[in-house]
Amino acid sequence: MTFIITLVALVIERFFHWSHLRHWRWFTKYQRWLLHTRISGWPSYLLLLVTILPPIIAVGVINLLLDNALYGVLKLIFGVIVLMYCLGPSNLWVQAYSCISELHKEDPRLAVERVRAAFGVTDVDNSQAFHQAFVRAIFLAANQRIFAVVFWFVVLGPVGAVLYRSIMLCTESPLGLAEIGTKILRILDWLPIRILAFIFALGGHFTRVATHFKRGLFTGVSNNNNLLVECGIASLDVVDGNKFPEDGSAERESIALLDRVFVMWLVILAVAVLIM
Fold it and tell me: How many whole angstroms separate alpha carbon 230 and alpha carbon 196?
């Protein structure tokens, strides 16, 4: 069932644009409500637990209640809904292709603004820096928006997907949970990023990626993003050393690489399900 849910969710996310229906404003409102209660003065780790436990418990209870209901069909539908809801918040492919299309228009400032709004790319001094930052942002977004959510869904079920997304949202919490949220998020990212980096080697230049992968495999959580980006860039054909093409081809190849990577991830998951 986990494989089917993951397959359906990734296909929908890849080929359909429905992220405008996916929002977590209620979670932010809940945190703001907590801000005006007595528990707002509690230690940050306790406040974090109070923040993330209600949705996690609710999803866990519903998932248990749906066990064997209608031969598992309801549980499957619920799993797809939860996983789809926890991806994003915005569709990676839609935003990436929209930004890439802006690169071919006459006003480069519009492309920079679009990338800044979609991926948070800032401090771009020149064209090379812009393209490097854009490609870097695509790889980081692939993990935070999709792969890490799917990974924790596979490991812990719907509870895992909600756990990751709620911790991600706590990094921008009005309750001042950014520091502890970021620490926990890095821990949650440690294994998914290394799996994703390894699949980059399978989907791109194995030897080049393996060099970076071996060097960063057992490093700490502070090196997560660097490892992922280095392995992602090493797997691209169009990047010559540190020089990126300025026609958007590096960005397009990055998206194509992600398509191959997610297909490989589904194959790996299917094999794991058959073995188990």
Answer: 12
For the chain, how many structural domains are there in total?
1
The residues, any chain, with a CB within 8 Å of residue 20's CB and separated by 6 or more, are none
DSSP structure class, residue 173 = -
Quote the domain boundaries for residue 152. Answer: 2-275
Task: Give the whole-angstrom CA distance, residue 270 versus residue 267.
Answer: 5
Task: For residue 242, report the phi and psi dihedrals to the nearest 5 degrees.
Answer: -100, 10
Residue 95: Cβ-neighbour burial (10 angstroms; 0-12, 13-18, 19+): buried
pLDDT band at 199 (very low <50, low <70, confident <90, very high): very high
How far apart, in Å, are the Cα atoms of 2 and each of 71, 151, 169, 193? Answer: 15, 11, 25, 20
State whether residue 22 is helix, strand or coil.
coil
Report yes or no: 232 and 194 within 8 Å, Cβ to Cβ.
no
Q: Is the pTM of this model over 0.85?
A: yes
Alpha helix segments (H runs only) across the chain:
2-15, 25-35, 44-65, 73-86, 92-102, 108-119, 127-141, 148-156, 158-170, 178-203, 206-216, 224-234, 249-275
Amino acid residing at 189: D
Q: Is 154 exposed, middle or buried (0-12, 13-18, 19+ CB in 10 A)?
A: buried
Q: What is the pLDDT of residues 106-155, one digit of tens each?
A: 667 787 888 888 888 876 777 888 888 999 999 999 999 999 999 999 99
Phi, psi of 243 (to 5 degrees): -100, 120
The residue type of 249 is: S
Distance CA 145, CA 196 (A): 13
